[in-house]
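Why ComEA protein? Reviewers of the renewal asked for a concrete example.
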Amino acid sequence: MKLGWPHLLAIVVAAILLLGAGYVLATMRGGMEPAAIEIEPPPTIVPTPPTTVATAAPTATSGPWRVYVSGAVAHPAVYELPPGSIIDDAVRAAGGFTAEADAAAVNLAQPAADGMQVHVPALGQAEATPPPVSLPPSAASAPTAPSRMGGVTIAGLININIADQTDLEMLPGIGPSTAANIIAHREANGPFATIEAIMDVPGIGEGKFEAIRDLITVGP
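Here is what the prediction returned.
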């Protein structure tokens, strides 16, 4: 059976409509697809180091010196003196010299030290035992052979061959001028061969030598 042109026209229109509908559906489906979402990484957090606060170290404070004053003083005992004290301060703390004290045997201007003994001999005393000024004892671990600390040995003796002005003035009756004479004599004539040779120094006679003979040495 032959189709008339009206039927053919209807078929063509229907085909065009179907194609158009298919195109529209395809377009709509493409537009409904979800868009890609870009996820940014979280920011990097750099930790801040803790702030260090500097604190000052505690300052060590020195305590009082303990000095034993014995012999011909009013009140022999151990006294506490402020650092930097001299022998005169120790004698005054003990009430001063007694009437029998040989004040000339003690150098009142000598610096004191923690642990020192100051012994004031009596007039006419043959020898000072202990010496007028005794240095603090050495530690138990110290070597038995005497070792030098400047011009002073561990045994507490002044080596007159190496002692400086300060060391020599530690001796009773030896002031700045006499100490300078000892050093000048030593430099001009060489080391003292014996402790008795110190009497060749101007200003040191037998009396002054007897006061210091047990406190000096010429050896190491």
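The CA atoms of residues 49 and 55 lie 18 Å apart. This is the kind of structural detail the renewal will allow us to pursue systematically.
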